[in-house]
Design a protein that fits this description.
The complex is a heterodimer.
Chain A lengths: L1 E6 L9 E7 L6 E2 L4 E6 L4 E5 L4 E5 L6 E3 L3 E7 L1 H5 L12 H13 L2 E6 L9 E7 L6 E2 L4 E6 L4 E5 L4 E5 L6 E3 L3 E7 L2 H11 L5 H10 L9 H10 L17 H6 L12 H11 L5 H6 L9 H16 L2 E9 L1 H18 L5 H15 L6 E3 L2 E3 L6 E3 L1 E3 L2 E3 L2 E2 L7 H16 L5 H4 L4 E5 L18 E5 L2 E8 L2 E15 L5 H16 L2 H5 L2
Parallel strand pairs in A: 20-24, 24-25
Antiparallel strand pairs in A: 1-8, 2-4, 2-7, 3-6, 4-5, 6-8, 9-16, 10-12, 10-15, 11-14, 12-13, 14-16, 17-27, 18-19, 20-23, 21-22, 25-27, 26-27
Helix pairs in contact in A: 2-3, 11-12, 11-14
Chain B lengths: L1 E7 L3 H12 L4 E5 L6 H6 L1 H19 L1 H4 L10 H25 L3 E4 L1 E6 L2 E5 L5 E11 L3 E3 L12 E2 L1 H4 L8 E5 L3 H12 L3 E5 L11 H13 L3 E3 L3 E7 L4 E6 L5 E6 L1 E4 L3 E3 L33 E3 L10 H15 L13 E3 L4 E6 L2 H7 L3 E7 L4 H6 L5 E7 L5 E8 L2 H13 L4 H5 L10 H12 L6
Parallel strand pairs in B: 1-2, 1-6, 2-3, 6-17, 8-15, 9-10, 9-15, 10-11
Antiparallel strand pairs in B: 4-5, 5-6, 7-16, 12-13, 13-14, 18-19, 19-22, 20-21, 21-22
Helix pairs in contact in B: 1-9, 3-5, 3-7
Classes of the chains: A alpha+beta, B alpha/beta.
């Protein structure tokens, strides 16, 4: 028997305690994973608590009790008895004997149980979300086989099995766990249990299913054809997570083309059967109207939730404001047109605007060290190096890989580094180290067409430069109206440490360096 | 010029790599030291040797089997000059074909010696001494290999020759001494044995083609012996001397005694060594290992300088044209970010003697060493209608299957068109087919491939139908 404690989750930055609103389930009642068991009220909102596992509910806090974040709400007892509980519920009468048999066999033969916990993945990562399970509960897994994909706010990574045996999932896809929490258990030496499971299921289904099972047990089940192997590798899908439709469960090219990476959290098993029942009913009377006013609820990913929390925190905890300026891009564009072919020939990378901006910021940061500093408690930490974070938009959201020691890099080194990091970001391969420790950030909203915006600083950094689109504007130069390519630039900064003089001067300095790039060479 | 990819060497690995790069939209150049494209394979390897093998096989049949077929010939003789001329014509046509393919795919061809200036720049030194610099994001080394020799043996290219010279002799040797009874020795030795030369094989190992399944070596030896060849196994060659009209080979026999062989030609076929001369690897930050090979990452074929790749004979693995081709495609696709794969176990080995020898997967000895329980199914060609009809009754098919799962783990064929037939085994094994799977697939009758099905039946449960 094992127990899972359900505690008050972290629900928002400023919420420190909650009140138990009402219990949906009673003490001693059997609950299913993801079923709502009670509701909690905070000073801002009320929300539901769902069960993290199948089992029997043991209530620990009564309605009206006030609990701090992390306080114990209840315990779910998961065990052989608990697993058999569905038998007592009226619905699946016919299948009742099967799970009982399977469940009672499993613990009896399991020699040893290995608990797999969330590993420490990086200094600032405190929790991870289970993005997807590659294996199902009860599957037999091999040592080092990938069990599931974990997602933190900074990166995703795979969890390999620490032992061979039968997988018992503790935390479902979509659930968020803190470092050290139990993700699953592996019953070592439970080979016979696994074998007995399909047998126990057999009576439920008819003869056909047995045949199908037998062929899937082939030694070649899950073996991809050469073309399928290539397609799956390119999609980043583990062949073990795809069901093969070929002879003996082999993976055909078609299987590989149809396979989807399991990143989005799946609807809970409890909800799944309901959906199809409800759906046909609704469209019947007025399908078009229903379409027109459709709504979708998609659970926020861990990355999105963290971004949300961070952005709000920065707004709340810093004294952020923004200063603006405009940059005449003509000199850079001319320089670029003149040398871009030579530059590419020599260095093998294109000469973009980013290297100019990165260089200009690196120089200006050395001159205005407070812009390159951050607050740590009662102290201000000044950095002698300029590690510049570059915001890169990816399908999963914004990530900010860091260009280290930008102050020492040449234009070509910067361009190459940006290409390398952006490639890693797109392929979702950035490591946490590659995203940590920047001292200043550059973000370019111009690529999406932004004329002007006020970026939010990337805490704990003190400032961020926003680049925007380049538009030909009428400007006055030497008393004459001329057309020039102009980019508005914005510097958001933390006024707690950076005074207006420093921030404005910094941005003016960046403007100066960009409008006369020769200065970058001469360091004047 | 600035390229996405420069391929150095235009052998089957290099030119295929260049074509695949071009197909994927990469701006591609290829550098070839020699006047014709195609490398060893097309110029002095697979293609010319196969051309001669076929000619010699025709002659052999004309002199030995035509009478039984009911064809009478008088004054049959070998016109070696014409044989060599035809071979040269075949080579020239195939090389022109590669030239055409380069044009068709808009690949720039640089004729000259390519050498690294840095990791992105290659200097091409042309025949007249002109120099051109070209740069590229990625560079693929596909410089191949050269015949190797033994310590104490100098190849003079007159009487002490390599496979290159053996493809253009202007007389039939009276007594050809072949040092090394591996793939190349077996192929060229059997060519000259069939057109009338006395051939003696002197081999360090204890069997022919020692890297292949032991049954194949034994069967091959039996058929080559019928051509009148002699075999001296476990002999260690000490010296080879050209006395003007003769060559004298001195070797140590298994008892430790020195023995001498006298002939008019000596073919050194003791293998090949990776070739990187003149490449100036050090300028790119690379070095070849002790055996001349360039080290590459197992998963990407990148050298330790990430934008430089190496493929084919110049890296680890079997020195086979089709292995190099797979690697060429692999590298091109890897460069553009695709994730191809190569199953090295399933790259077939082929020997173009007659009968041909081909094998894929594990050999019986390898399975024993690995402790994998297996079962064997064999089927001799003499029991096959098609082989009877063509009088190609030498040889056998051997299938090795997993004892429990029946999965085919190895297939080894010696017999007519074995090199073509092995493709069926490769397809089956890529899909991890069992011996019974193949047994249950229809094979056209009468064909040589029925022998493979029969061997699979034998492996499945000792139930070959025609044995």
């Amino acid at each position: 028997m094992s127990q899972i404690e359900i505690k008050v989750p972290t629900v928002g930055e400023s919420i420190t305690e909650v009140t138990i609103g009402s219990w949906v389930k009673k003490d001693g009642e059997s609950v299913k994973r993801d079923e709502v068991i009670c509701s909690l009220d905070s000073d801002k909102a009320s929300f539901d608590v769902v069960s993290e596992a199948d089992g029997v509910l043991r209530v620990k806090a009564q309605e009206g009790d006030v609990l701090p974040i992390g306080g114990l709400i209840c315990v779910i007892e998961t065990s052989a008895e608990a697993a058999s509980a569905p038998a007592s519920t009226p619905a699946p009468v016919a299948s009742a004997p099967a799970p009982v048999a399977a469940a009672s066999v499993a613990p009896a033969t399991a020699a040893k149980i290995v608990e797999m916990k969330v590993p420490t993945v990086g200094e600032s990562v405190t929790e991870v979300t289970i993005a997807s399970w590659n294996k199902k509960d009860g599957d037999t897994v091999q040592l080092d086989e990938v069990l599931c994909e974990l997602e933190s706010d900074k990166a995703t990574f795979e969890l390999p099995a620490e032992a061979a045996g039968v997988l018992r999932i503790v935390a479902e896809a979509g659930s968020t766990l803190s470092i050290g929490a139990v993700i699953c258990k592996i019953e070592v030496g439970a080979g016979s249990a696994a074998a007995s499971a399909p047998v126990a299921e057999a009576p439920q289904s008819n003869g056909q299913a047995v045949t199908a099972n037998a062929s899937n047990d082939s030694y070649a089940a899950g073996h991809p054809s050469p073309a399928a192997a290539k397609i799956l590798a390119e999609k980043g899908i583990n062949p073990a997570s795809v069901a093969g439709s070929g002879v003996g469960g082999r993976l055909t090219k078609e299987d590989a083309i149809a396979a989807q990476p399991q990143t989005a959290p799946k609807p809970t098993p409890a909800e799944q059967p309901k959906a199809p029942v409800a759906a046909p009913a609704a469209p019947a009377p007025a399908p078009k109207a229903a379409d027109a006013r459709g709504q979708r609820r998609v659970k926020m990913t861990s990355l999105r939730k963290t971004i949300a929390r961070r952005l709000v925190a920065v707004k709340n905890e810093t004294a952020m404001l923004t200063t603006f300026n405009e940059v005449d891009m003509k000199p850079i564009m001319e320089l670029r047109n003149k040398y871009k072919d030579k530059f590419k020939e020599k260095h093998g990378v294109g000469l973009g605007f980013m290297s100019f901006f990165t260089r200009a910021c690196a120089v200006a940061l050395q001159e205005f060290p407070v812009v390159n500093a951050f607050i740590d408690g009662d102290e201000v930490v000044y950095n002698d190096f300029s590690d510049i974070s570059i915001a890169v938009s990816t399908e999963r959201g914004l990530v900010v890989p860091v260009i280290r020691n930008a102050e020492k890099m040449t234009f070509s080194q910067i361009e190459k580094e940006i290409i390398r990091l952006a490639g890693l970001a797109r392929d979702n391969k950035l490591t946490i180290d590659q995203m940590q420790g920047g001292t200043f950030t550059i973000t370019n909203g111009g690529i999406f067409g932004s004329m002007l915006s006020t970026p939010i600083i990337n805490a704990p950094q003190a400032a961020i430069l926003g680049m925007h689109n380049i538009v030909e504007r009428a400007v006055v130069v030497n008393g004459e109206i001329v057309i020039r390519p102009i980019m508005y630039v914005a510097l958001s900064y933390d006024h707690r440490t950076i005074d207006g003089r420093d921030s404005v001067s910094f941005l003016v300095r960046v403007k100066q360096l960009l409008e006369d790039p020769t200065r970058l060479l001469l360091e004047v | 010029m600035q390229y996405d990819v420069i391929v150095i060497g235009s052998g089957p690995g290099g030119y295929i790599c260049a074509i695949r790069c071009a197909q994927l939209g990469l701006k591609t150049a290829i550098i070839e030291k020699y006047k014709t494209l195609g490398g060893t394979c097309l110029n002095v390897g697979c293609i010319p040797s196969k051309a001669l093998l076929d000619s010699s096989e025709h002659y052999y049949n004309a002199s030995h089997t035509f009478a039984e077929h009911g064809i009478q010939l008088e004054n049959l003789k070998v016109d070696l000059a014409q044989m060599i001329a035809r071979k040269s014509e075949v080579v020239s046509q195939v090389c022109k074909g590669v030239e055409f393919l380069m044009k068709k795919n808009k690949i720039d061809v640089y004729q000259g010696l390519g050498s690294f200036v840095d990791k992105n720049t290659v200097k091409v030194t042309k025949e007249g001494g002109d120099i051109e610099m070209i740069t590229s994001k990625n560079i693929v080394i596909a410089t191949g290999s050269k015949p190797s020799s033994l310590p104490g043996v100098t190849i003079d290219k007159k009487r002490i020759i390599t496979s290159t010279e053996a493809l253009q002799l202007n007389e039939i040797p009276k007594h050809l001494i072949v040092i090394g009874a591996g793939v190349i020795g077996a192929e060229l030795g059997s060519v000259y044995a069939r057109i009338g030369a006395k051939v003696s094989f002197v081999e360090y190992a204890s069997a022919m083609i020692p890297t292949m399944d032991a049954t194949m070596g034994k069967e091959l030896q039996r058929t080559v012996k019928k051509l009148g060849a002699d075999f001296y196994f476990s002999h260690k060659v000490k010296t080879v001397e050209n006395t003007g009209d003769e060559v004298i080979v001195t070797a140590e026999n298994p008892k430790g005694e020195l023995v001498t062989f006298t002939g008019d030609y000596c073919l050194m076929s003791v293998g090949r060594k990776p070739y990187t001369d003149g490449l100036a690897l050090e300028n790119a930050g690379l070095v070849a290992d002790q055996r001349g090979k360039i080290e590459v990452d197992e998963h990407t074929l990148q050298t330790k300088v990430p934008n430089i790749y190496a493929i084919g004979d110049v890296i680890r693995g079997a020195m086979l044209a089709h292995k190099a081709e797979e690697e060429g495609v692999f590298v091109a696709e890897t460069i553009v970010g695709q994730k191809p794969h190569i199953n090295y176990l399933l790259i077939p080995n082929v020997v173009y003697t007659w009968p041909e020898v081909a094998g894929v997967g594990y050999t019986e000895d390898e399975l024993k060493a690995k402790g994998i329980a297996y079962k064997t199914g064999s089927f001799p060609f003499k029991a096959l209608g098609r082989a009877r009809a063509s009088m190609d009754i030498d040889g056998t098919v051997k299938v090795l299957a997993h004892k429990e799962t029946d999965e085919i783990l190895g297939a080894h064929i010696i017999g007519p068109r074995a090199a073509d037939m092995i493709a069926e085994a490769v397809v089956a094994m890529e899909y991890r087919a069992s011996a019974e799977d193949v047994s249950r697939m229809s094979h056209a009758h009468p064909t040589y491939t029925e022998a493979f099905k029969e061997a699979c039946l034998a492996a499945t449960g000792n139930r070959a139908l025609n044995a």
